[in-house]
C-alpha cells in the first residue's frame, strides 16, 4: 500500500510524498522499509505514459526543480531548463524530480524516524549507494504507473544517477542526458569529500550523529564542509573574474582576521546559508554514496559492460573549466558508450564558471538539451 | 644587543636563536620587539662573506633544512637540495635557513611570550606580511655580518619571500631562485586558506586563540585545515597514481564511515600528524600573510616596478601539474622580470606530483638549480 499526499499548489509544481512499503534491498545488504520519497511533478502524464521525464538532482539539490524552495524562498534550482518554452516543458512533458534517498527534504534519510525505535535513524541509517537511490526512484516511477521514461536527465551527481538508470534499467530509459559528471569518483573527489566529512565529525555538536534532539546541530562543521566543496564547484578563472583580490567594504586591508577579501565573505556566506537548508548527516551519507560510485566496478571492471546492448540514446555534456568532473571523465563515459555500440552525442561546452556551469545560464547547454530531447520524440 | 645561543651539534647544522632588539616596524603599522629568529646554518662563512645562501621555507616548513627535525625525528625537508655534493653544498656555501616570523619553531609568533604581558601573544600578535618576514630575515643577515647574499632560494611561500627579497633589498641579492611560486595569491588560493582558517576558528578548543594555557589545542580544526590544504599540494593525476580508488586493508567497502579508501586514510594521517608539529594560531597568521601577498600592489600596481633596475639574476621554475601555483603564475613573474630588463632563466619542469614536486626527488630541478648557482659564481 502506498499513500500519496498532495502538499502544494497543484497548478504548477505538485509536491507529494510517496510512502512505499518496500522493503528495498540496499547494495550494502540492509533492507529499508518503508521507503519515503518526496517528489514534485510538473505537467500531466499522457494517457500512454510516454511523456515522462525524470530529472535527478545533485549532492545538495532537492525535488524543488522549478518551484519555490520552501525553506529558502528561492526559485527552483533548474528553472532555466524546466518551464514554459524551456527544453523540458510541462506543457508537453510530465516532469518528475525526487529528493534522493539519504537526503533531508522529505525522502528517507538519517533524519527520518526509524520505525523500529521511533527515533531518528541518525548514523543507524544504512549506508547507501547511487544505485540504491536509483532503485528507490524506480519504485516511485512504478508507483506513478510509468513503465518507460522518455528521458532521464541530470548534472553532477544527477548525471551519475542517469548513468545508473541506464545501466540498471536499460529498458526503462529512452534517452539519457549526463551533464558535468563522471563514471566514478576519483581519488581527488574522494579526498575533498573526506575533508568535508571530517569537518562535520570534528564538530563537537555532531555528537556521533545524535544531534536531532538538541537544538544545536553541527553547523560550524557543515559550513566548513560546504566551503571546501564550494571551491571545487567554481573555476580558478571564474573566482578571479568574480572576486579577484577585491577587498570587502574596505579601502585597505584590516590586518586582522575578518573577511577582508570579497571571496572570503562569499565563501563564509555559502557555508552559513547552507546549514539552514541541509542536514549534516545527510551530507555524510550522500558524499559517501558518491565516493562509493564506480560504475565500471559494478560491471566487472569494464565500463562498457554497463551499457552492453543498450537501446538508450545518450547525450553527454562537459564544461571546459570544470575541474571537479573534467571533460576527460565525460570522454571516458563516451568511449565506453562507443565500445558498447550505443547511440551517443557528446559536446564539451565553453564556460568560465567551472562545474557550476550546468546550473547557471547557458544558452548553449539549453540548445543542446532541447535538440537532443526533440530528436528523441516519437 | 643580540645574543646568539648554539643549541645543536655544531658539526653539521648549527641551530641557534637570535634575539634581536628591534623594534621591527611591520607593514600593518605595529612595532615588534624583541624579534626572535630561530635559524640553522650549514658550512662556514667565507672571510669576504661572499658565500652565503639564504633558503626560505614554505608555509609549514621550518629552519630544519638539512638536519633532523627535533619533534618528528624526520630528516630535514630539503636534503635533496642541500648537502654534500648537492646544488647547495655546505662544503662551499654558508647556508642559512630561518624560521619565518609568525611561525612556531622558535621565531617570534603568536605562541611567543608578549613581553608587555608575560603571556603568549595569541591573537594579540600583530598580523604580518611576507615582506615583514623578509625584513626580519634581513635583520638576521645583518646580525650575521653578511652584506650581500650569493643567493636567496625558495619554493612556494619560500619563492614569494625570494621575490620580496629581490624587490625590497635588490643590492643584497646576487641570485634569486623562485620555485613553484606566484607573484600574488589568487582568489582560489585565498579561498582554500579561508576554509582552513574557518576550520580552526570553528573548533571550540581554539577559544579565540587563547588555548596555550589549556592542554587542549584546536587539533581537530587544524587537522581539517591541513587536509584541505594538502589536496592542493598534490595533482589529481598524482593522487590517482598513488591511491586511485584502492581500499584500505579491506577486501570490500565497509558501508560505514571508517577510512575505506587509502586516500582517506592518507589524508587523515596528514591532518593528525600535522597537529603534533604546528601551532594553529601560526597557521592563521602565515596563511593571512600569504593571502595579503601581492607584489604588484606593493609597487604601484605594476609587477615590473618591483624589479626596476635590478642587477639580480633570476631563475624561475614551475611544475606542469602544479595547480596551486600553476605555470601561468611563474610566467607572470618572468614577464615582469623581462619588462624590467632583468636577467632571468625560466623552465617548466614535468612532474606528476603537483605543487609538492619541489620537495620531492627531482633530478631535473637539482640540475637546474645547480647549473644556475654555479653560473653565478664569481
UniProtKB/TrEMBL annotation, chains A, B:
The lineage of its organism: Bacteria, Pseudomonadati, Pseudomonadota, Alphaproteobacteria, Sphingomonadales. Belongs to the AB hydrolase superfamily. MetX family. It comes from Sphingomonas naphthae. PANTHER family: HOMOSERINE O-ACETYLTRANSFERASE. The active site is at residues 156, 322, 355. Keywords: Acyltransferase, Amino-acid biosynthesis, Cytoplasm, Methionine biosynthesis, Transferase. This is Homoserine O-acetyltransferase. The keyword Amino-acid biosynthesis applies. It is an enzyme of class 2 (transferase). Homodimer. Its EC number is 2.3.1.31. GO terms for molecular function: homoserine O-acetyltransferase activity. Pathway: Amino-acid biosynthesis; L-methionine biosynthesis via de novo pathway; O-acetyl-L-homoserine from L-homoserine: step 1/1. Substrate binds at residues 226, 356. The keyword DNA repair does not apply. It catalyses: L-homoserine + acetyl-CoA = O-acetyl-L-homoserine + CoA. It is found in: Cytoplasm. Transfers an acetyl group from acetyl-CoA to L-homoserine, forming acetyl-L-homoserine. Residues 52-360 form the AB hydrolase-1 domain. It comes from the Bacteria. Pfam families: Abhydrolase_1.
